[in-house]
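My main concern about presentation is that the manuscript never shows what a single data entry looks like. For the editor and my fellow referees, an illustration may be useful. For illustration, here is how one protein appears when written out as sequence plus C-alpha cells:

***
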Amino acid sequence: MHRTFSMLAICVSLLLTSQSTAEESELLINEASTHWGAEVASDEVTEEADFSLSSCDSCCPSSSCGECVGACGSCCEPLLFGLFAPSDHCFDDFISPMTNPVYFEDPRTLTEARLFFLQHKLPPALGADDIQLLALQLRAALTDRLSIVAAKDGFITTSSFLLDDGWADVMIGLKYNLLKDPRQGRILSAGLAYELPVGSTRALQGNGDGLFHLYLSGGRRLGCNGHWLSSSGFLLPTDTAEESQVWYWSNHFDRRLGETNVYAFTEFNWYHWMRSGRVSNLGVEGLDLFNFGTRGVAGNDIVTGAFGFKVKPHKHTEIGVAWEFPLTDRRDVIDNRLTVDYILRY
C-alpha cells in the first residue's frame, strides 16, 4: 500500500511540474525514490528488532547510569558443552561477594568456575594457628533462571592442634531466580543445597548425617557505580546432636572507582546459633567452614567485617582480595582471614 501511494505521488508531482525543467523533475524522482527505499529499510530493521526482542526479553545496563540498551545477547550464545546456558549478562556491572564464601551466594544465574584460597588465623585462645583452604566452586546455568551450584569442597591444611589436613565436605544444590529487573538493577533468587558429610574426619569434616542450606539472595544497583548484595539463610542439620543450627545474614556493598574496572567493597556477616549440638565441649563454633556440634552455643552471635578490592578485566573474569576480622568481642574460631579468588565466567 505504501509503495502504491508513493508511485502515485510521483506521477501527480510530475504532472503538476510539467513546466519545470528536466533537472527539477529528475531531482523530484530521486527524492521520492530515496524516501521509498528508506521506508522499506526501516520496515526491515523494525521487523529484525522485534524478532530480537521477542527472542531475548531482557536488556543490559549501559554505562549511562543503568539505562538499558537492547537485548543481552546471551540467549544467542551456544550452550557450554551442549548442556549449560551462558551466565546472565544483564548484571555484568555487579561483582560477586567474597567472604562467607560457602553460604553467601551471588543472586545472579551464572555459569562459572571460582577458585579461592583462604588463610584463616585462629584466636590466641585456640593456639593462634593457621588454617588454609584451597577450593573450586562450580556454577552452571540450566536455564536463564535455574542453576546448579557446588559451593563447598576443597582441601584443608593446618598447623593447629585442633585438627589435621584433609578434605572438606561437599555441598551441592539448586538456585532459582525469582525476580530480575535489569532496568532498575534489582534481582532476587532462592536456593536449596545439601552438604554431604564426605570430608575427612581428621579435618573435623564428615560429621553428622548432612546439612541443608535454605536461603534467599538479592541485589540492587545503587546509583551509577554502586551495588548492594544481601543473603540470608538457615543451616539445618539432619542430626541436631552432631551439628548446630545456624542462621546467618551477609551483606556486601561495593563501588566502582570512576571509569576503571576496579571495585572497592566492604562486607558484613552475622552468625546466630539457634540450637546447640550435643557432641562437643569445645565451647566455640565453626562459622562457615566447620560445624562442631558444640554444647551451649545457642543464642551466641558473631559479626565479622571485611574490606577489599576486585578487578574485572572483562565480563568473563574477576580477581579479588578481602581481609576479614571479627567486630564482636566473641570470636570463636576467627582472629582474621585473608581471602583471594579468581573467577572465570561463561
